[in-house]
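Deviations from the work plan: none for this task. Representative record:
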Amino acid sequence: MEVELKHLMADLQSLNQSLPDPSLHASLLQIQSRVEHLANLAKSEPLRRSKVKDMSAEVVDSNPYSRLMALQRMGIVENYERIREFSIAIVGIGGVGSVAAEMLTRCGIGRLLLYDYDKVELANMNRLFFRPDQVGMTKTDAAVQTLSDINPDVLLESYTLNITTVEGFETFMSSLKNKSFRTSKQGSGVDLVLSCVDNYEARMAVNQACNELSQTWLESGVSEDAVSGHIQLLIPGETACFACAPPLVVASGVDERTLKREGVCAASLPTTMGVVAGLLVQNTLKFLLGFGQVSPYLGYNSLKDFFPTMQMKPNPQCSNFACLERQKEYILAKPARDAAEKAKLEAEPPTEEGPLHIDNEWNISVVDDCELDGSNAKSSDILPEGLTHELPVADDFPSIPACQAPTTDNDDLEELRRQLEAINS
Amino acid sequence: MEVELKHLMADLQSLNQSLPDPSLHASLLQIQSRVEHLANLAKSEPLRRSKVKDMSAEVVDSNPYSRLMALQRMGIVENYERIREFSIAIVGIGGVGSVAAEMLTRCGIGRLLLYDYDKVELANMNRLFFRPDQVGMTKTDAAVQTLSDINPDVLLESYTLNITTVEGFETFMSSLKNKSFRTSKQGSGVDLVLSCVDNYEARMAVNQACNELSQTWLESGVSEDAVSGHIQLLIPGETACFACAPPLVVASGVDERTLKREGVCAASLPTTMGVVAGLLVQNTLKFLLGFGQVSPYLGYNSLKDFFPTMQMKPNPQCSNFACLERQKEYILAKPARDAAEKAKLEAEPPTEEGPLHIDNEWNISVVDDCELDGSNAKSSDILPEGLTHELPVADDFPSIPACQAPTTDNDDLEELRRQLEAINS
């Protein structure tokens, strides 16, 4: 529009110069002043805030970060401005992912990587974030449009691709590995991956990428009847991966036979998705900024306002090879981890009712080697009230004895597998 | 802008007619076509969706209600389209109220009444909803701008006023009493009031109005350290009103001495406010559409992902006169209520594990008359883990014996007060 207005003004100028009759100049001048007014109107419409170099804690109405920096004065966060150093990847910019992206943008996250291949439709308008005027745009483009207006300080990278295709997965992997944003970082180039996809295949693709990159991620989901959801923390090798156990869902108590009929469109609510996005990003902030406890699994049953929690250990018979590799590394690193924890405990004076492990930022208890087969127990025996498996438990996992003798440091997954084969033969 | 463009086109037309030289017509024609292009650009920018007469369940991308109407097929809601008959008042269009308004707008609520006197500032940008280009607008104007673009089917009424002033309170009361939207409704003209204010005085004003109008409301709040919040259902006469007991807050575990220092700006997070808004509107939907259980009180401690619940009975020594009137009515209506419940129970066949009271849509147990003094018990004795009173318990309430003998139908609050005076004299 700005370009159009410039051309218009140039045309009027040249017409003015070629006008023979001085009496016509007055009416042309009026036209020119109208166009100038229009140009001003057009300019003032997309009023954007300018970038902010440093986060200030100054309590003035014009400071977009004053209420966030106040978290330091309130004793919640030690150094809020560190948020600018972090990169978060959000896979799926739908009802949960788009709201999560907006929350992180408003919190002033350093860099956001957004992945989706879908377009905005009017049928999405029952969830937060997208606007009717964005219908037809790709979700990534629409998200970048909205988020860059809200906070120009956030570095946005968008990828319009399907991570379940070969090409899409390769681009996904290489974008996660890109370390140009903060060179000091170890492992992958992002601090956390948030999975906000709505199907099993896409979750398996995120799981594969994160297992290969040893990348911690948070998975989220909302049920097809729109009234329950969950978030889950996955640390490759340390917690169950998405292939270790059938995914869990929060039971809504609604007859399952009415769900998942072929061709039936799933229900969704802005409330359930907003709550799940809020819990997801709150746990992301706790993870990044080191306050509170990150939940290993948190369900939300909205019919009863019930929030089940649980922890899941990795499955030594997991079908995912990269997961087995990470499990092996985790077991092999146990002596070093124990020594580091012991040193930390000795260095710090004992606190009243202190945490079991000082550095246990995810509130996860250490998995004893002999308990590694826990995830093979019958699902109904180990799941807390209100949780059910989304898929039936696979019957082809061989059962192993309740508890092996404590394994030595030399034991690894190959050894476990050999023992297992001997038992089954 | 549209008006300006029309004037411009008229001016060009008259200039065209007065041009003597035919060679100038060509350049003027080019100018006119440029202006027409600009007019088209200006028209296409605020692309709004048209109003929808009936909510359709048709599964097409262009249907903004398909995912909501699917709640019926999923067996969650019996008649979703009823949502168009309801009016909701939201007091306080800040971090919680604005998101609640957006959720209800996207759900297709019939009518929204919005109350706030504040202006949008850059310091609000760390919470969802308002955009930097709205800085300087009143929150009510900015909300109407955004919400009417999102869903033109919702009837929006905005009131830029402070309900704690005499004049503001009067307008607030008369707006709640206006029954023109749906004439069949009994009592006030709204179905539910959502309190999303950030201070004690405003909550007391909402409490006063709702007690006077016998209007059920949902209160919400977020702590000054930004990491906890709550929602609470208040039914005048049936549950504790806001004056019955010191307000409850969810303890964050952070040293209270660091909080509430004079002149310190409160912290806030889009996550906590998004979760509280989501829980608030989810319970609003359950209340309106009759599914699931409405929580009488639900807390959110984000540091531990802990969600305490509780119920609060009215205080027969409440300082609010209108509350005492409602309590009296509630007690007097007990025989009629019991008879109606009995009739309903007899009319319907007994269901397996059915609810205690068929019509108990708020999941609140009937308060036995002799338990009416429960709220006078020492607060530390009755509060569930994780909840504390925001203010100290008032010491001037006279204590009464643990449990009176069951009162007869003739007993009312005057009688209770007489008994109390006799004990204390």
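The two ends of chain A are 76 Å apart (CA to CA).
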